[in-house]
UniProtKB/TrEMBL annotation:
This protein's encoding gene: alc
Keywords, ordered alphabetically: Hydrolase, Purine metabolism
Listed name of the protein: Probable allantoicase
Coiled coil: none
Family: Belongs to the allantoicase family.
Pathway(s) served: Nitrogen metabolism; (S)-allantoin degradation; (S)-ureidoglycolate from allantoate (aminidohydrolase route): step 1/1
């Protein structure tokens, strides 16, 4: 769709997003906005409120006593706060009942505020009031270098929106990470897959998601490799650190797990990522089994900023966990970024 779609959906339910409140949800529930799957539609499925839609749909607005029509809104807490790079407003299947215009606002509030407490937040317009079409995905790039925790979707005046996607870069709170053993490869801590050799079935960022994968689609899976070599993924860690334990989880991958895995690392502050000689082996090619978790302690691992995961020859991985310690440089990097964006 656009370049920003390569970033994770910070509002997605799979990453902890939640729709806290909405002005109205007479036809369809506000929670549908952040469902992770593509919107579906089944014609002639009429319930007590009319045709059923996989989205959020409000009642038809009428002017009040003063003649004002107003507009509808939905308040979303991002599962992973961060810098928003783009927003997708998808009106899939809403053809005669979509809103003609929409806008998006965002704010940053520490802690765990209620919907009522967010009313007085410092809201910033990140997508101005823009025209929409029916049954279409609308992509809006965002160029505001600030960390946000919540967004508010406004539609004018009413109607139905199937999905809201809020793509961006995770910016973790360093106060929750410094001084602790952390997962340096966790998406919620700021790690991200930069490149991979193949993502035919699913995206490699999936293996950095929180929680356990419930099925094959919630991990990373490649196509069947027919040529020499092996599949790989390049991962930028949350911050510079020392990995103490690596976990390779092949859960749900019963006939398509890799035969072996390997892990190597590099400090990109002192070497180029494309310099093969600068990479250090962290775990040699090691056999793994299907549908299981495999944990390996790493002895005398150096400080690294990036790792390369190799799958031999191909297959999938449900989750990758790299538990370790942030170095002083890593803690400083997280703190500086936090201060710059909040």
């Amino acid at each position: 769709m656009t370049d920003f779609a390569a970033f994770p959906d910070l509002a997605g339910r799979a990453l902890g997003g939640s729709v806290l409140a909405a002005s109205d949800e007479s036809f369809e529930e506000k929670e549908n906005l952040i469902n992770p799957w593509a919107p579906a539609f089944h014609p002639e499925t009429f319930g007590t409120k009319g045709q059923e839609y996989d989205g959020w749909e409000t009642a038809r607005r009428r002017p009040d006593a003063s003649g004002e029509l107003g507009h509808d809104w939905a308040l979303v807490r991002l599962g992973l706060p961060g810098v928003i790079r783009g927003v997708v407003i998808d009106t899939a299947w809403f053809k005669g009942n979509y809103p003609p215009h929409a806008s998006v606002e965002a704010c940053h509030v520490d802690g765990h505020p209620s919907a009522a407490e967010l009313e007085t937040a410092d809201w910033v317009e990140i997508v101005p009031k823009s025209p929409l079409k029916g049954d279409s995905a609308h992509a809006f790039p965002v160029d505001i270098a600030r960390r946000f925790t919540h967004v508010r979707l406004n539609m004018f005046p009413d109607g139905g929106i199937a999905r809201l996607r809020v793509h961006g870069e995770v910016v973790p709170d360093p106060r929750l990470l410094t001084g602790l053993t952390v997962d340096l490869a966790a998406l919620e801590n700021g790690a991200r897959v930069l490149e991979c050799s193949n993502m035919f079935y699913s995206r490699p960022d999936n293996m950095l998601f929180p929680g356990l994968a419930r099925n094959q689609a919630e991990g990373w899976e490649t196509a069947r490799r027919r040529e020499p070599g092996n599949e790989w993924a390049l991962i930028r860690l949350a911050a510079p650190g020392v990995i103490r334990l690596a976990e390779f989880d092949t859960s749900n991958l019963k006939f398509n797990a890799p035969g072996q895995v390997a892990l190597s690392g590099i400090d990109a502050r002192t070497a180029r990522l494309d310099d093969a000689a600068a990479w250090t082996g962290l775990l040699p090619r090691t056999r793994v089994q299907p549908d299981g978790r495999h944990r390996f302690r790493l002895a005398d691992a150096p400080e690294v900023t990036h790792v390369r995961l190799d799958l031999h020859p191909d297959g999938g991985l449900a989750r990758l966990r790299l538990l370790g310690d942030l170095t002083p440089a890593g803690e400083e990097a997280l703190t500086v970024r936090w201060r710059e964006l909040t």
